[in-house]
Q: What sequence folds into this?
């Protein structure tokens, strides 16, 4: 509660008096000022502001009730522990009490928004994420209308996280009329609202784009946000797509990309791109991250890598590969096209990958993560032993971190490798596995435990425990 007390104590005396007239117990003394003082405010999240105000009002209400009813205080503490924030349960309030609380929340949000828009001269990030509380958005809309052009706190605005929603038109129109230089934008949804499109059209320094849940092809072809983003595509250097597989069809428009992140947690493809999308040529690409829960084609990634020459980081995660035969093609693409590689995390097939050739071609590699993709054909249970022998033989000069996932080693070879680690440049070695399709033997785990105590193995265990 210290944070909101600080902000409330920073309000003009007129605003404080108005809050008190509505039964809001504002501290009569200013709390100790800290970095969160309004003048230092750099980010404004409308949903969080409403949540903060709501929690404070309910907390004060329960605190006041507990003065006359000690038992109520105990009940309030239990609720607070359960809800972790406000300790409220609206079902126990009367209708009049609920209306009174809503009015107080509305008033506090209004006063704080006015304070921030006037006293936060260098606000750089604005979050208008998917709607949860319509009140806060209407208040923000009203404050923008009365915002003085000479006292524009949004002149330093460079980041915007927003929802593509027709109900937000007035807010986006007001932002478009302000002098903003947005360089990074995150968009949820795909309603193709013209107001958001107009806001994007007036931005001249847009460089980072983050799209969430956008898969419709018509989103890019019809007039609106998609078409405006296509016009700005040549400016974008960092692109992040989350559950937006349909955008891959237009990836070639982003010719100056330096960083690309593709992430989809859906178990079924949100858009069928198999065979219909060709890997574009992104010559300036330096960082590629790919994480899919559903099935995907490894050939698309291999072709994408082959069309670059400046990649320094490649991370490919996802075991549901449609074309495992092309895993070797991915490996070869990295060897040929990534001489500047620093960080590499890729799946590998049971066919012995040429790790020595990889280390010779990518001499600067510092982190290597290998995720073994088992074959359907019968194989030797210790088919990954050769990986370790190649690493010991090559002894790459710059390799510091090695992560092995779902790799099957014989106990003897694994122990030899761990004993030899002090004579290599490796500092961190981890061994992980996916519990649902792989389980090391008890003897193997005993070796892992032993060398972890010696400090030669950083971590071992189920990958879900480490990634979560």
A:
């Amino acid at each position: 509660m210290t944070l909101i007390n600080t902000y409330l104590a920073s309000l003009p005396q007129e605003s404080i008096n108005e809050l008190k007239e509505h039964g809001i117990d504002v501290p009569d003394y200013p709390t100790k000022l800290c970095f969160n003082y309004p003048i230092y405010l750099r980010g404004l999240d409308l949903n969080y502001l409403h949540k903060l105000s709501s929690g404070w009002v309910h907390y004060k209400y329960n605190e006041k009730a507990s003065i006359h009813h000690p038992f109520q205080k105990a009940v309030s503490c239990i609720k607070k522990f359960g809800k972790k924030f406000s300790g409220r349960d609206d079902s126990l309030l009367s209708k009049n009490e609920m209306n009174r609380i809503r009015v107080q929340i509305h008033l506090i949000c209004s006063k704080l928004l006015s304070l921030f828009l006037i006293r936060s001269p260098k606000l750089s990030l604005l979050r208008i994420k998917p709607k949860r509380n319509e009140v806060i958005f209407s208040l923000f809309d009203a404050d923008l209308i009365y915002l003085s052009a000479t006292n524009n706190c949004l002149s330093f605005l460079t980041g915007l996280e927003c929802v593509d929603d027709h109900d937000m038109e007035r807010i986006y129109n007001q932002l478009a009329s302000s002098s903003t230089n947005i360089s990074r934008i995150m968009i949820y949804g795909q309603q193709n609202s013209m107001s958001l499109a107009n806001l994007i059209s007036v931005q001249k320094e847009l460089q980072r784009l983050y799209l969430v849940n956008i898969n419709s092809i018509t989103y890019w072809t019809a007039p609106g946000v998609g078409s405006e983003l296509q016009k700005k595509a040549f400016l974008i250097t960092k692109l992040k797509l989350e559950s937006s597989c349909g955008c891959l069809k237009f990836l070639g428009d982003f010719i100056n990309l330096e960083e690309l992140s593709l992430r989809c947690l859906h178990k079924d493809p949100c858009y069928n791109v198999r065979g219909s999308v060709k890997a574009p040529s992104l010559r300036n690409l330096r960082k590629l991250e790919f994480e899919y829960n559903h099935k995907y084609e490894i050939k698309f990634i291999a072709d994408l890598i082959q069309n670059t020459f400046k990649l320094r980081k490649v991370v490919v995660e996802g075991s549901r590969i449609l074309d495992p035969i092309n895993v070797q093609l991915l490996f070869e693409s990295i060897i040929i096209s990534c001489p500047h590689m620093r960080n590499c995390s890729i799946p590998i097939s049971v066919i012995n990958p040429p790790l020595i050739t990889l280390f010779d071609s990518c001499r600067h590699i510092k982190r290597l993560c290998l995720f073994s993709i088992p074959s359907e054909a019968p194989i030797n249970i210790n088919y990954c032993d050769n990986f370790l022998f190649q690493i010991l033989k090559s002894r790459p000069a710059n390799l510091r971190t090695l992560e092995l996932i779902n790799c099957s080693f014989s106990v003897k070879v694994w122990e030899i490798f761990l004993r030899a680690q002090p004579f290599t440049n490796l500092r961190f070695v981890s061994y992980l596995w996916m519990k649902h399709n792989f389980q090391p033997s008890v003897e193997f785990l005993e070796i892992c435990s032993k060398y972890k105590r010696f400090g030669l193995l950083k971590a071992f265990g189920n990958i879900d425990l480490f990634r979560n």
Remarks:
- DSSP finds 17 helices and 14 strands in the chain.
